[in-house]
Design a protein that fits this description.
The complex is a heterodimer of chains A (266) and B (274).
Chain A: H1 5-13, H2 15-40, H3 44-51, H4 54-60, H5 69-78, H6 81-103, H7 106-111, H8 117-146, H9 156-184, H10 187-210, H11 215-219, H12 222-227, H13 231-234, H14 238-261
Chain B: E1 13-18, H1 24-31, E2 43-44, E3 47-48, E4 58-61, H2 73-84, H3 90-97, H4 110-122, E5 128-132, H5 140-155, E6 159-163, H6 167-173, E7 176-181, E8 184-190, H7 191-196, E9 199-206, H8 213-216, E10 221-227, E11 230-236, H9 240-246, E12 251-256, H10 261-273
Parallel strand pairs in B: 1-6, 1-7, 4-5, 5-6
Antiparallel strand pairs in B: 2-3, 7-8, 9-11, 9-12, 10-11
Helix pairs in contact in B: 3-4
The chains are: A mainly alpha (266), B alpha/beta (274).
C-alpha cells in the first residue's frame, strides 16, 4: 500500500506519455551528438555565427563556440529546446493532474473523505517535479553514453549542473500551471497560461538582450536568470536556481491554499 | 440554494428529489464541503465538514463517477484502499454487485462502471453515505441489490442520503423524502405523506345519470369530468368523503388510481406553481 497514493497514481497514469517523451528526447539528443563532429570540424559555422547580428545570436543562445562540445550543446539543446520541452511537459502534467481532475469530478470524489486538498496538491506537485526530470535525465544519460563517442567534452560535473538548471526551469513552469489550475480548476486554462508564460519569458529575454527598453522585462524572465549564463559552458547560476526553486515552492503553497479555499468545479 | 435546512439521522435513508436543476447535486456537494454555502453551514455528526477528520466516515458517489480508464477494476479498488485504508466490506460488495476485478475499466458498460463506483463508495462501510443518482445504468436486479445494501448499511447505523430520478425506488427504500424546487426545500417528511397527497383520479360508474353536483364541491376535489353515467373525479388527499357520498347513489363500478410518490411529487409541484 503506497504512502503517497496520489503521487504514485499520477506517475502511473502518465507512464506511457513519459516513456514517449523520454524516448523522443533520447532520439533528439542522439541526433545532436551525431551531428557535432561535422560542426566541430568545420570552422565556417563559428565564422558564420560571428557574422550574425546580435538579435540572431541571442536567439541561438548568445556568444558560444559551436566547435566546442559544451558550446554546441548549449546552443542546440540547453538554451531553448530542452528547457522549453521540459517546461511544457511539466505544465501539461500539472494542468491535467489538478485542473483536469477537478473538471471531471475526481478531485471532489477523493476529498469527500478524510483526504485533504493540500495533500493532493503537494503530492501532485511532487509528481510534476518528477515528470520534469524525465526528459532532463533522458538527455543527460544520452550525453553520458554518446558524448565520449564524439569527444563532446561536456564533463560530468557540468552535465549535472546544466541538468539541474533544466529541471528547475521545468519545475518553475509546472508550478505556474499548478497555481493556475488550483485557482480556476480548468486544465485548458492552466496549460494555456503556462505556455503563454513560456513565450513571454522567452520574448522578454530576447527583447531585453537587444533593446534597452526591454531590460525591465528581461529581469522577469527565467531564461535570463537560468539559461542566458550558458550553464553548459559556464556552470549553474546557483543563486538563480535557489530563487527559482523558492518561487516554485511559494507557488505550490499558494496553489494548496487556493484549492483549500475555493469551491471545486466538478 | 436558499434557506435549505435538513438533517439525516443514523439508521435513516433520506431521498432527495427534484426536477433537473433544482439543486440536488449542489445540496450534496455542500453537505460534503466541496462547495461552500454563502451563509449557513454543513455538519457531519456535529463536526464542521471542512475538517478532514470529520469526513472520515463518508462514502460519496457522484453523479458521474470519475474512474481511471486505463486501470483494471482490481487496481482501482486497490488504489482506493491505499488512500482510505483496508476496506472490510470490499469482498461483500464486490460479490453482491457482481464486480469483475480483472476487467479494464475502459471496457466496462455504463452499468458495470456504476457497480465499481458503488463498490468504492460502500467498501469502507461508511457512517454517512451520500449517493447522487446511484441507480443510473443499473439493471433492475442490481438495483434491488443496491437498495438492499443501502438498507443493510442503514440497519448497521449508517445515515444514507440519496438522490434519484427513479421515484419508484425512492418510494420503496427511503424512510423520508426531501423535495427541492429552485433551490428551496418545499417538502420534508415521510414518503407516505407525500404519496398520499398525490392527485388521484377516482372513477365512478352510476346506474343512472352521473350526479356531478353532488361531488364537485366535496373537500379535496379539484376537478370533475362527467360523461353520461360516469364521473372522473380528480382528488387530492383522502378519498373517504367520496366513498361516503357515492353510497347515496346506485354505484355500478368504483375505481381509483394508486397514490404514488411520483403522483405526490407532481401534485406538490403543481401546487407550488399556483
Amino acid at each position: 500500500m503506497s504512502r503517497v497514493p496520489f503521487l504514485t497514481r499520477a506517475l502511473r497514469l502518465r507512464i506511457r506519455s513519459l516513456v514517449g517523451w523520454g524516448t523522443g528526447t533520447v532520439a533528439f539528443v542522439s541526433m545532436m551528438i551525431a551531428v557535432f563532429p561535422v560542426v566541430r570540424d568545420d570552422s565556417s559555422f563559428d565564422e558564420l555565427l560571428a557574422e550574425y547580428p546580435e538579435p540572431i545570436r541571442a536567439l541561438i543562445g548568445g556568444d558560444v563556440s559551436l566547435s566546442s562540445g559544451p558550446g554546441f550543446m548549449s546552443a542546440e539543446l540547453y538554451s531553448l529546446m530542452l528547457p522549453v520541452l521540459t517546461a511544457l511537459l511539466a505544465a501539461n502534467a500539472a494542468a491535467a493532474l489538478l485542473g483536469g481532475e477537478d473538471e471531471r469530478g475526481w478531485l471532489s470524489f477523493v476529498v469527500s473523505g478524510p483526504t485533504t486538498r493540500t495533500r493532493v496538491v503537494l503530492e501532485t506537485a511532487t509528481a510534476v517535479a518528477l515528470v520534469a526530470a524525465v526528459p532532463v535525465v533522458a538527455a543527460a544519460l544520452t550525453v553520458v553514453v554518446g558524448g565520449p563517442m564524439v569527444d563532446l567534452g561536456l564533463d560530468a560535473g557540468r552535465l549535472v549542473e546544466v541538468s539541474v538548471v533544466m529541471w528547475v526551469f521545468g519545475v518553475l513552469f509546472g508550478a505556474a500551471a499548478l497555481l493556475v489550475a488550483a485557482a480556476v480548476g480548468r486544465r485548458s486554462t492552466a496549460i494555456g497560461a503556462a505556455a503563454g508564460l513560456v513565450v513571454f519569458a522567452y520574448a522578454a529575454e530576447i527583447v531585453g538582450s537587444i533593446a534597452s527598453w526591454g531590460r525591465p522585462l528581461q529581469v522577469l524572465s527565467p531564461f535570463h536568470h537560468l539559461l542566458a549564463t550558458q550553464p553548459a559552458v559556464l556552470g549553474a547560476p546557483w543563486l538563480g536556481l535557489v530563487i527559482t526553486l523558492a518561487v516554485a515552492a511559494a507557488m505550490t503553497v499558494v496553489a494548496a491554499l487556493l484549492v483549500e479555499r475555493r469551491d471545486l468545479v466538478g | 440554494m436558499d434557506g435549505v435546512s435538513l438533517s439525516v439521522d443514523r439508521g435513516e435513508i433520506v431521498g432527495l428529489i427534484g426536477a433537473n436543476g433544482s439543486g440536488k447535486t449542489t445540496t450534496m456537494r455542500m453537505l460534503l464541503g466541496l462547495i461552500r454555502p454563502t451563509a449557513g453551514s454543513a455538519r457531519i455528526a456535529g463536526g464542521d465538514v471542512s475538517r478532514a477528520a470529520v469526513r472520515n466516515g463518508v462514502g460519496y458517489l457522484p453523479d458521474d463517477p470519475p474512474l481511471d480508464e486505463r486501470w483494471t477494476v482490481g487496481e482501482q479498488l486497490d488504489w482506493w484502499e491505499s488512500v482510505r485504508g483496508p476496506a472490510r466490506r470490499r469482498a461483500d460488495i464486490e460479490g453482491v454487485l457482481g464486480v469483475e476485478s480483472n476487467k479494464r475499466i475502459s471496457e466496462l458498460s455504463r452499468g458495470n462502471r456504476q457497480k465499481v463506483a458503488i463498490t468504492l463508495t460502500l467498501m469502507h462501510d461508511p457512517r454517512l453515505i451520500v449517493m447522487d443518482e446511484p441507480a443510473t445504468g443499473l439493471d433492475p436486479l442490481v438495483r434491488r441489490e443496491l437498495w438492499a445494501a443501502l438498507r443493510a448499511a442503514a440497519d448497521r447505523g449508517a445515515a444514507v442520503f440519496v438522490s434519484s430520478h427513479v421515484l419508484g425506488d425512492i418510494e420503496h427504500v427511503c424512510d423520508r423524502v426531501v423535495v427541492l424546487r429552485e433551490g428551496r426545500a418545499v417538502f420534508d417528511g415521510p414518503v407516505d405523506e407525500l404519496a398520499r397527497s398525490s392527485r388521484r383520479v377516482v372513477s365512478i360508474e352510476f346506474g343512472h345519470a352521473a350526479p356531478r353536483a353532488a361531488f364537485a364541491e366535496l373537500p379535496g376535489v379539484v376537478g370533475v369530468l362527467a360523461d353520461n353515467s360516469r364521473l372522473d373525479i380528480e382528488v387530492v388527499g383522502p378519498i373517504d368523503v367520496l366513498v361516503k357520498a357515492a353510497a347515496d347513489f346506485e354505484v355500478v363500478d368504483f375505481s381509483t388510481s394508486q397514490a404514488t410518490l411520483e403522483g405526490g411529487f407532481v401534485t406538490l409541484n403543481e401546487e407550488v406553481d399556483r
